[in-house]
Amino acid sequence: MWKLKIAEGGSPWLRTTNNHVGRQFWEFDPNLGTPEDLAAVEEARKSFSDNRFVQKHSSDLLMRLQFSRENLISPVLPQVKIGDTDDVTEEMVENTLKRGVDFYSTIQAHDGHWPGDYGGPMFLLPGLIITLSITGALNTVLSEQHKQEMRRYLFNHQNEDGGWGLHIEGPSTMFGSVLNYVTLRLLGEGPNDGDGAMEKGRDWILNHGGATNITSWGKMWLSVLGAFEWSGNNPLPPEIWLLPYFLPIHPGRMWCHCRMVYLPMSYLYGKRFVGPITSTVLSLRKELFTVPYHEVNWNEARNLCAKEDLYYPHPLVQDILWASLHKIVEPVLMRWPGANLREKAIRTAIEHIHYEDENTRYICIGPVNKVLNMLCCWVEDPNSEAFKLHLPRIHDFLWLAEDGMKMQGYNGSQLWDTGFAIQAILATNLVEGYGPVLKKAHSFVKNSQVLEDCPGDLNYWYRHISKGAWPFSTADHGWPISDCTAEGLKAALLLSKVPKEIVGEPIDAKRLYDAVNVIISLQNADGGLATYELTRSYPWLELINPAETFGDIVIDYPYVECTSAAIQALISFRKLYPGHRKKEVDECIEKAVKFIESIQAADGSWYGSWAVCFTYGTWFGVKGLVAVGKTLKNSSHVAKACEFLLSKQQPSGGWGESYLSCQDKVYSNLEGNRSHVVNTAWAMLALIGAGQAEVDQKPLDRAARYLINAQMENGDFPQQEIMGVFNRNCMITYAAYRNIFPIWALGEYRCQNLNRDYHSKVDKTSEKKMAGRSVGPAEVVNERAEQYQGKVTGFVIVTCFVAAIGGCIFGYDIGVSGGVTSMDEFLREFFHDVYEKKSHAHENNYCKFNNQGLAAFNSLLYMAGLVATLIASPVTRNYGRLASIICAGIFYMIGAAVNAGSINLPMLFLGRIMIGFGVGFENQAVPVYLSEVAPANLRGGLNSMFQLATTLGIFSANMVSYATQTLKPWGWRLSLGSAAFPALLMTLGGYFLPETPTSLIERGLAERGRQVLEKLRGTRDVNTEFQDMVDASELSNSIRHPFKEILHKRHRPQLVMAILLPTFQILTGVNCVLFYAPVLFITMGFGGNALLYSSVLVGAVLVLSTLISIALVDRLGRRALLISGGLQMIICQVIVSVILGLKFGDNKELSKGYSILLVIFVCLFILGYGWSWGPLGYTIPSEIFPLETRSAGQSITVAVNLLMSFIIAQTFLYLLCALKFGIFLLFAASVSVMTIFVYFLLPETKGVPIEEMTLIWRKHWFWKKILPTDNQ
Length: 1272
Prior knowledge:
Blueprint (H helix, E strand, L loop, with lengths): L1 E5 L17 E5 L6 H16 L10 H10 L19 H17 L17 H12 L2 H4 L2 H13 L7 E2 L6 E2 H13 L10 H11 L8 H10 L30 H16 L7 H9 L10 H4 L14 H18 L4 H22 L7 H14 L4 H6 L7 E4 L2 E4 L6 H14 L7 H14 L9 H4 L20 H15 L3 H4 L5 H13 L38 H17 L5 H17 L15 H14 L8 H12 L12 H5 L12 H14 L7 H13 L13 E3 L3 E3 L4 H18 L3 H9 L11 H9 L7 H28 L2 H7 L1 H8 L12 H28 L1 H20 L4 H29 L5 H5 L1 H20 L6 H7 L2 H13 L4 H6 L3 H12 L5 H15 L4 H4 L6 H15 L3 H6 L1 H7 L6 H27 L1 H26 L8 H19 L2 H12 L2 H33 L2 H20 L13 H4 L4 H4 L6
Antiparallel strand pairs: 1-2, 3-4, 5-6, 7-8
């Protein structure tokens, strides 16, 4: 019984780069299999043979039977069948997807790839058998069971008329018929064996003119076998390899498959090699020709070709060329001195053959040059090591199914299928259920990347770079391909977003960079990408295409598939690594998009060159454009493509395209207008991506119904007509497509169509709220937040603590201003009038400090800060948060030094202005820094460290002022100058702290950003959070004028908050209490101990309240603290106003009892402020803006805060004098308005990831009415 073996060597002559990962081959074991197993195999074979003329494609049942025995199969879910009038529900689709992925998981190999049939062409196996027959290795390499299965295959795919086609579904051709007839003869079949099949085959050949009408490739194979004369071949001179490379016809400029086939052909032609003339060969000379062999006109035979084979007729210029070479050049090269040139050419050819062999581990680029190279190595030396190294790799190309053993078009399609399979499974959004499957697939992708360029001078060998590329099959094969690299890169990037516990460690970023380098290097000047290399010559070179059977083989043309795959991969890469070669990536994408648009057909389709055909090409065309944001609503190209696809939809709901579309280049339905699961899936994927559901979802529902109903009982999908193609005319099998693409299409359908209106679904939940009640974010983003990995690390705590020192400086400068204004020496030096008023006991209690100069001492800081924050915004955005923090520290130090050394009022004011600049830079950067560094679930608490540091700064300032007031006459200088110490700490912190990941990504340093994020979160599994940052950065970088952008309607809620929240914060009146606490305590009769009372009581209460806020803000939420704090402040302010109004006149002093009572309510007021508006007035604005307007929004917040602080500072003493105790009622009224505003208009932001914050506005009862719709 046969057994498929995976990732094994088994021969000392095998070479490998990755321990044979991806290798697949069949081995016969006579002792394997139970009677039931053997019976199942025979039943599959018989069923195929009985139906071979109806269903020409095998279903890969032998592999499926083996894996069903080896792999654990979970219970199959019930099959779903949907009536024509039934709705397609999400449950139906999910059930179908689970059944499909469950089954597909069972046929995954242990090394992570999905093995499968990659046969189809009927001219491959003959080359192998002819070569093995010539070299005498037929019976050594192939067992009797191999030969039996090969004969089975050839008989199974013989057409009813007796001939064989170019491929398994094609009509009979001379090329296929002669070669397969010869193959059967070499495999031991007699001229009249096979129950008449051999005779029928021979009759077809003779009735269509005999073997002289075979194509040029067939002539070559018959010539080396000895059943055709070399003089009947058009010349294949190896001297072409000696031409200078600048000539357009140099083979190095040809498509690699073309040159690698004609390279060994030219070697064999140059030598005129003919194998041993056996009795079978002599018999074939009699069987294949309509006239005796010695009477054949070989010169005439050179240009003969059966009409059934003639896909690409030779143009006249080609006939002239071959005749000239045959009649004139070849006679010269066959004799001295021309023979010397011939020998040199042959040596050059074999040198290139060996290079190809060695750098593909003797797999070679394809099956044709594989066996030709092997033959050349034997011709050069029958006992050579090279020939022995070739032999075990033969099995890499052989595949067994119920139709027999075939030779595949490659050594498999392992990487190609696996890349698609990964994307399909991820599209289902059922990742967690298939973690082991994805983990194995991920391992395969990582193990299959090409890690090195080929050795030597690549130009000499005409090779492109390959380091970082992904091949079509295996790493041992090694040839780089543009779309395989793109699909491999896409798969690797998608898997990097999934937690590593599910899919394993992500691929190293350097390897991704290498892949991007390969893709960029393969782009042609017109923006398109070809397959293996750049397009090196001109389309007119197709005039010398000698292969009558194939079209467009001479040069490597750019294709929509390769170009689209490159666009999609680069877009995905740019999201995760936006800074890597940004200009080149952007230019590559832009040029590629233009290319795709330029080659679209007038009917809206794209021709698919590598699968059937217009549905395939149009899927790629649409997906490439969709990747850059184009849809059928904003792109005429996408709209036309959708119209084209919809026009081809069948009554069944599906699409079914014949391989005739490929060769005729005109869309052709399958016979009987049948639908095909693969064509249907491609059309669905294109339409879903284009946004068809927003226009009319019914076509997608019908297509989904067809796919669901097509699924088989075991979860597999049926094998229908052949779907792969190459060179326009030859079909090839992609056995995995029947599983991959229906799963992918239904997955996209489920996630993007049945659930496409995610936000409206959230809105339906929010509609359950009571009118006027704001709703938390849980329904919107908790699910996203839960995907964020990591923990609270010591690193993030230390980082936030050091950054929050900026708040300490800010608080110190607020507190110290009140402290020094209570010192007589300071007032006598700079504000003598105030000093005089203070000295007169009869002075009005409310008016004794009413002096505009003293007010300016305080307010100048805020006005300077307002100006500075507008400057700080572009610095923060373009140079990073730390740049602004360092600038703030430097300004603080300069200001502190100038203030401490002031000898006059202008100098004092200059120092305050410099400190104001520090305030502007610091308030702009530090809250944003804290919000971006902190985890989403602790952002409120960690951000509140800024307010805590501020309160500690105020407390420290008051204590320093209390201590220095006795140091006359220079104590005030020490108080003002002490601000330099925390400023120095903050500046040093700016040098040693890490920049925020968001800022690094925004500035193109994505790799560093990820490293910092991993360190902050204490884990490498930061894919989801990192992706959100990258997405936000991508949008941010598209916004060149953030202050202009912030005025857009979509940012209206955040802009309102940026203006009103800091305004309300200042209008609480707390600044007045904090700025003038010592003055107020003196005014209220506390005398010389006023500063001590202020320092201890106010400072302690502020610290306590801020600690309460830190503990509760991420548990209770922002709204609960703001509302409770607001109510407490209103009550306290009213009581304070009443006490002052009744018991504290213009020239009175409070009694001790009322003084204590007043202090209690002032402290309760400060307590309410400290756990609510104090910290949250900074926290909320710093977290609600999207990245593209975050720095601008923070600038507006700080500017408004400082402007209001300036206004209050400048007017408070005047208002205190004019309104007296009524000023507290004014602030109470302001806090009442604030509290009502919060209750109705501020949504909860607790726990919302910072890059997902914009979602909360779309579900708020009021703001969703203001925001523009998606269409707007």
